[in-house]
Amino acid sequence: MNDGRTILNQWADAGECELPGEGATDQALSSTLMKGLEILALYSDQEDRFANAEIARRLGLNKATVSRLCKTLMHMGYLRRDPKGNFRLAPRILGLSYPVMAATRWRHQLVGPMREIAEMSTGNVTLAVMSGDQFVQVQTVGDPVSFPHIPEAGITGPLHRSASGRALLSLLDGQELYDKLAELRLRFPEEFEAHADLTAASIARCRSEGFCTSYGDWRPNIVALSTPLGETDDGLRVALSCGLPRFRAREDVVENDLGPRLAEAARSFRMMGIFKPPFFA
Amino acid sequence: MNDGRTILNQWADAGECELPGEGATDQALSSTLMKGLEILALYSDQEDRFANAEIARRLGLNKATVSRLCKTLMHMGYLRRDPKGNFRLAPRILGLSYPVMAATRWRHQLVGPMREIAEMSTGNVTLAVMSGDQFVQVQTVGDPVSFPHIPEAGITGPLHRSASGRALLSLLDGQELYDKLAELRLRFPEEFEAHADLTAASIARCRSEGFCTSYGDWRPNIVALSTPLGETDDGLRVALSCGLPRFRAREDVVENDLGPRLAEAARSFRMMGIFKPPFFA
DNA sequence: CCGTCTTGTTTCAAATATCGTAACAAATGT
DNA sequence: ACATTTGTTACGATATTTGAAACAAGACGG
Fold first, then answer.
1. What are phi and psi of A142, to 5 degrees?
2. Which CATH architecture has domain B24-95?
3. Does B45 lie at the interface with A, CB-CB under 8 angstroms?
4. 226-255 in A: which are within 8 Å (CB) of B?
5. How far apart are CA A17 and CA A123, in angstroms?
6. Would the pTM count as exceeding 0.85?
7. What is the pLDDT of residue B215?
């Protein structure tokens, strides 16, 4: 928009981020472990079972390899076979998450106020934390039925293409932000460009007005608002977000009523002593 | 107790379970993947950070190996470094759990009634599913503060040494039960023996009276009751349990009041059409 | 019912990714 | 500043992983 070079790209330029070593298989990384984890990461709420051949096709692996990896994952208890012979995630996988859930006890204090916001907005209210190049929802409040997806802790999404993600980015200061943006641009070149201006504007707005909005940037049918909360003492950056089905979201209400209310809620959440306040607040 | 051979051992004898191939590294399993997963499994609510050397020590690995594996896990987004250089779980790990959480939507219908039981008993109420040789809690209701541990979805525990586990075992019929017991005896020989009679009695009681109890078998300071609910259509076996701090649990109340009430609750839960009723009900 | 597909597991030798030593780098502590 | 501890990187030896092919087990269709 501004002479062909967005401000976000300028920021990203300022970040350090090595190029991946010529597309070659990074010899410092354990490829077998990666393949195994990629199998687990294949699953979603949409696809809860896979045949051996399907896993092999998606990951570009030999079916014999998949067979052995899945056998290992079953042995470890993270995969199970259903009656039809498909591989499914085993509930045991929740055990890996438990330490993280247990470490975020502070969210229990927030569910009450979150519930009020959910009722007020007739939407979903979530807490999201930054993890690498994604956000991860750690707490969800609201009515599960009226949404196209299933709101639960564990939902992940892109930092640069969602309200939650942008609110989280707004918490990063100076070089940290530049580095993260450089990483994102490296990982998703085309997407990053496509959303660059919106992302830059949202980050700025979070810092000035205390919230940002997104109209289907991430989930096409969801209008979302988000506000940065701050950083916990163990280094987790947290945002508070609200999502509405598009048909139920009137833009003027979102911008002039819900947004300011969410920002106000964030201010009161920050008084609880859980979060180190953001540098701009 | 009965001429030196417990009934549970007789059951376990009837189960098929190969011996592990002479302690040799099972060549059909991917050792690198196992090591990586073992690193992730090291974490708990008690220990949320590890130094490289500590991981190496616990798993008996070379520190160079640990370095490479952790680098890989960080690259995948499941591990992060804290300011002191320790390895911590990254929130991204929750993303692996999400598909399982999303698949157990039925639990939302149960939280209301569960909350009533929690209030009535002044304890914690949980839903647990069987996964391999463990149970996994998928839903928790109650007051987190009065417990020595942090009640959250994802807590795992032993099938043969807990009320929840025994209630789940009671759902297995015939050969399936024998196989599972044989597996458990193979995996935990000494523990299995130590708890064999209690486990057998609890399974029998679940089938006749609809519940079983445990006085510190798993967590020393927790008295627990559990009742089998049944099997969901995607093959998950579910139990409903209630836990109380020991000092607050009067045995006669547990046995004669709470137990029957829990069994009664289970009966009403089974009317909701979520579970295929157990073979003995 | 039998042959024909399809799909998954196992075997085995070849290939290559992993391991451990040792050197290096960094941080910690005295 | 030096000694000590701890984590990462390089590199050759080695053990693990890989993929082809054979095998086993169902599923399908005539």
1. 140, -175
2. Orthogonal Bundle (1.10)
3. yes
4. 234-236
5. 38
6. yes
7. 97
